[in-house]
Each structure stands twice: as C-alpha cells, then as structure tokens.
C-alpha cells in the first residue's frame, strides 16, 4: 500500500532532479552563448580568415580617413568582391 502513495506525491528524489534557479540560469546563459557562436560561424569554412579580412578592411578604411584628413585624398579605385 505504501508503494501506491509514493507515485502520487512529490518524492524527495523528484525534487532533487530540478536544478536550483541559479544553476538553471547559468545553463541557459551557456546555451545561449553556444548558439551565438554557432550562428556566427554558420556557413563559414575558415572563421579566422574571415576575421583577418574584416580587420584588413577596417585598417584600409582608417588609412583612407586619415589620408582625407591630411589632405592627401586621391581618387582611388576600390575592388569589390561578392
């Protein structure tokens, strides 16, 4: 008879299965960070190469802005790749 009552109420084992709210929050943050990283690299074979290309483009922009500020602005051709 005691076996029948254990399935109807919350047993001590069931309450221990749920993580604390702080642990759950940390798990959610970790999962969100993992999803963000996966989405950033989706479709990119070499993420390091993409990062270097972005840095080169930013550096080129900085040089152009600096040249314009110094009055050395020359019309330059820009290559655009898709």
What would your notes on this structure say?
Helices cover 66% and strands 0% of the residues. With 82 residues, it is mainly α. The longest helix is centred in the C-terminal third of the chain and has 23 residues, at 47-69. Residues 1-82 are annotated as: Disordered. It comes from Drosophila madeirensis (Fruit fly). Residues 8-18 have a biased composition (Polar residues).
In short:
66% of the residues lie in helices and 0% in strands. By secondary structure, the chain is mainly alpha-helical.
**Largest pleated sheet:** none
Percent range of helical residues: 55-70%
Strand content: under 5%
Poorly predicted runs of 5 or more residues: none
Order of helices and strands: HHHH
Large-scale geometry: elongated
Radius of gyration: 28 Å
- Which whole number gives the mean pLDDT? 80
This entry's quaternary arrangement is single chain
Strands, count: 0
Q: What's the total helix number?
A: 4
Roughly how many Å apart are the termini?
73 Å
Query: Structural class, please?
Result: mainly alpha
InterPro entries: SVIP, SVIP_metazoa
Keywords: Lipoprotein, Myristate, Palmitate
Protein name: Small VCP/p97-interacting protein
Pfam family, one: SVIP
């Amino acid at each position: 008879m005691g076996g029948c009552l254990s399935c109807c109420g919350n047993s001590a084992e069931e309450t221990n299965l749920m993580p604390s709210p702080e642990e759950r929050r940390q798990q959610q943050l970790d999962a969100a960070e993992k999803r963000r990283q996966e989405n950033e690299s989706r479709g990119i074979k070499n993420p390091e190469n993409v990062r270097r290309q972005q840095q080169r483009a930013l550096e080129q922009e900085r040089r152009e802005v600096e040249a314009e500020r110094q009055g050395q602005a020359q019309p330059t051709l820009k290559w655009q790749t898709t």
